[in-house]
Amino acid sequence: xxxxxxxxxxxxxxxxxxxxxxxxxxxxxxxxxxxxxxxxxxxxxxxxxxxxxxxxxxxxxxxxxxxxxxxxxxxxxxxxxxxxxxxxxxxxxxxxxxxxxxxxxxxxxxxxxxxxxxxxxxx
Amino acid sequence: xxxxxxxxxxxxxxxxxxxxxxxxxxxxxxxxxxxxxxxxxxxxxxxxxxxxxxxxxxxxxxxxxxxxxxxxxxxxxxxxxxxxxxxxxxxxxxxxxxxxxxxxxxx
Lengths: 123, 107
Fold this sequence. Notes:
The complex is a heterodimer of chains A (123) and B (107).
Chain A: E1 3-7, E2 10-12, E3 18-25, E4 34-39, E5 45-51, E6 58-60, E7 68-73, E8 78-83, E9 92-99, E10 110-113, E11 117-121
Chain B: E1 9-12, E2 18-23, E3 32-37, E4 44-47, E5 61-66, E6 69-74, E7 83-91, E8 95-98, E9 102-106
Parallel strand pairs in B: 1-9
Antiparallel strand pairs in B: 2-6, 3-4, 3-7, 5-6, 7-8, 7-9
């Protein structure tokens, strides 16, 4: 079964840091671009970041650029999101997603999604 | 930045056809994707590259994209299609962009 499982969410104070992980299984992990998308409570989907299949190209939304870093370890079949200088407005469910397009250099469509991990930024 | 505009809500009667639009500047020059999200669930890709259906998505879901508007069409709408639907595209400046979402109500 093709699957993505996020972990690492929790409660953190403003200004703090947190690292999210996303473990992939059931597919050739190293072949696909991967993405992070978040959803604040009661709100819509917000794009956060992408990394291409080999980790050499990354993209960020303006709202997180300079604070968040995406990376991947294909040997561990794991995607990461290092989040720093967290703000209350970063409170959301964070989803990782796999692109539908193998080896694409740019994001296409988000085919496989994880179940999400909740990040709460609060004093 | 690049923006996608969706109607906040669309209503449809069971068995009828629902159309959800997504508007953006020259959106027809880009690929559009659509996602379904039921309450408490992760999003589900239902259309990619304007009109392609992933494996397992019913044929009643179809898509088109031309000019400034992409459209998701659900034929023979069923109660289980009631959900939020999001359009999405890629732009060289904003990278990935999602619309704000449309709540589909099956009355």
